[in-house]
Amino acid sequence: MLRPKLPTMPQPTGQVAPPTVVEPTTITPGTSVSPPTPAPVAGPARPTVQLTPGTALALVGCGTAVVLVVGAVLVSMLLAVAVAAASVAVCAVVLRSLLASQHRR
Hints:
By secondary structure, this protein is mainly alpha-helical.
């Protein structure tokens, strides 16, 4: 009664469509084809960036600052969720006690 009914798959029958016949094309002599034009040569790629010790130190400092800011934002969001959950729990306990005392009367 509660068993699912699976559809039966039909057995493969082989080729469904007949194979198509490819007709050969004829080549007519005497027609000239212009040679392809060469592609324009691209200029040199972007110049390479060379890091000096000062720029490397600046990049490390900026990366550290970004990690600290993102970490502070994530920790504050986690703290906000924890405070909200605690307040909801306190409200639930208060409502439960109010409803229980109302049923005793």
